[in-house]
Each structure stands twice: as C-alpha cells, then as structure tokens.
Amino acid sequence: MTDSAIADWGERSVSYRGYDVLDLVRESTFTEVVYLLLYGDLPEEIFLADFRAVLAAASDGNDWSDESAWMSDLLDRLPLNVPLTEILRTSVSALAHFDPQPSDRSEDADLARTVRLLGRMPMVLGSRLAVIRGEEPIDPDPERSFPAQLAEQLTGSVPSPLLERALEVLLISVVDVGFSPAVQAARLAAAAGADLYGAVLAAAAIESTADRGGLAERLVSLWDERPWDDDAEGWVLERLDAGLGVPGSVFGGQAAFDPRCEIVAAWAEHLAAESGSESIAEVDRAAAELELAVVACGGVPGWDWATVRLLTAGGIAAELH
Predict the structure, then answer these.
(1) Are domains 39-211 and 214-320 of this chain identical in fold?
(2) Domain ranges of the chain
(3) How far apart are the C-alpha atoms of 203 and 208, rounded to whole Å?
(4) CATH code at 39-211
(5) pLDDT, tens digit (0-9, with 9 covering 90-100), for 260-278
(6) pTM of the predicted model as reported, rounded to 2 decimal places
(7) Which end of the chain is more exposed for a tag (fewer CB within 10 A), N or C?
(8) Which DSSP string corresponds to 222-239?
(9) For residues 85 and 113, is the Cβ–Cβ distance under 8 A?
(10) What is the pLDDT of residues 141-186, one digit of tens each?
(11) Distance (Å, rounded) from C-alpha 308 to C-alpha 240?
(12) Does residue 63 contact residue 123 with C-beta atoms inside 8 Å?
C-alpha cells in the first residue's frame, strides 16, 4: 500500500482526507464521501444539496441530449459480445470529445470532468445493458441515491434497502485500493501529461485485459465448485507449491491487511443470509471458507475478491462485476 493525497494507511486503519473509513462507512453516504475526496472536507447540507443537483444533471440525458443520443447510437452498434469493461473504456474515450472545455486543464475544470464522468458512467452502463437485454434504458431518478440507481442499472430492478446500503459501503470502501496495476497506469499516464480522460482510459485498459476481465467469473466458479473438499488449507498449499496461486489473492511481501475488506466481507455475509437463496448462501460460505485458508497460508484476499463476494451475495451476475 502507498499513501496518496486521498488515503493514508495505518497499521490497522485507513483514512480518507483524515477521516477514518470505518466512521465514513457508518455515518456518511457515497455522495458525501465523493464530495470529501474532491473538495477536501465533508459537505454542509447546503453544499451537499448543490452537489447532488450537479451530479443529477450529469446523469440526466436531457441535459446532454446531443451527447447521449450519439452515445446511445454507439452502444447500439457495438457487437453484443464486447465485454462491459471494454464498453466502458470506449465510452470514456467518446465522452472526452464532448468536453465543453477541452483545452482547460485547471483544477476546477478537472473537478467538473470528474463529476460529469461519475454521473454519466452508470447511465452508459445501463444503456448498454438495456441493448443486451432488449429493453428500454432506465431513466435516472434524482430522488434516489447513487448506489440505488447503479444497482437498478445493473439488475434492471429497484434494489432492496439492504443491497442499496451494501453497495454504498462497497463504493466508499473501494475509493482508493492502493497501488494496483490500474492505479499505477493512471498515475503514470497523468505524470506523462495525459488529461483526466487519458488517465481514466489507462486504468480502464488494464481492467479490460483478459486476466482482469474474467476474474469475477473465475472466482464465482471456484467458490461454487469447492475443489478443496474439506481441506481448503491443503488445497491452497498445493496451489502455491505448483506456482499457481489463488485467484484474487496475494501472498508474501505483497500481502497487506486492509480493514475495509473485513467490512465488505461482513456485508457480503449479511446479504447472502438475507437473500433467501440457498445457492447464494452456499457460494458465500465457500468464499468465506477459502478466505480463511488463504489467510492461514500467509495470503490476503484482495479487493477483487471482496468486491466479487459482495456483488455475488447481492445476486448480481459475475459478468456485470
């Protein structure tokens, strides 16, 4: 882990802009945390209301009709077999051409770009999924939270309060996951002079590689099949001896404790227990069992593992992670 302008890592804690993440998860919404990250402090109510309005406008296709119509046409024409990670990468590149201030590289302009991207990307994702499903896109609802709208775009239905809150916890937790390959690519692109879109594209390019793109499916399949029978630790050690490792986990010097993963794991367990689906509950129990084995063998399940576990417990298909 490396400290950044956003996050600081202690031995057993992580903070954003000086606020302990555990406190933020308990007491703040994702939108409030986004404001904190962009502007340096948690918002007063009047500023939060203004920020919500700006974010809602960024999501509203009527406020960017030319851009959204062009984007909808693009999403309709792309082959149905293109993975969602590659769709998002293409969409970021396309959205850059509609920037109202393309030559302005000031901090204020980059903040505005960040809000626009944050508002637009769930709608882009939803529009593409509507094409795949043969349905009409779901219109944004400014009265509902960002996690609720994201969940509806992913699943096609209004989420339960539990899933909405679990996604909020996840989004807050994954704001800064350390010096991952995608983060490294974004930082290098920015350091080399790329604009905000270029930095995001660099990260998206890493996330859309074959190894990264299929990780959720591999993890869910692993948990579903339980190839370790009743000896998860033995199975992990055999994998390590064979040089294969365990998907979504790190071992040795790269392994570092992150309390946010424990929070996400607890919410995954809660979601699975409340799902009413024995198959979801069984997969989550398998994930927890293998997680303990990985830790016992000197490893740490990474952020991909935690994210996939929570989304799977929430009933969201692996190809949408």
Answers:
(1) no
(2) 39-211, 214-320
(3) 9
(4) 1.10.580.10
(5) 888 999 999 999 999 999 9
(6) 0.89
(7) N
(8) HHHH-TTTT-HHHHHHHH
(9) no
(10) 888 999 999 999 998 889 999 999 999 999 999 887 777 788 889 9
(11) 22
(12) no
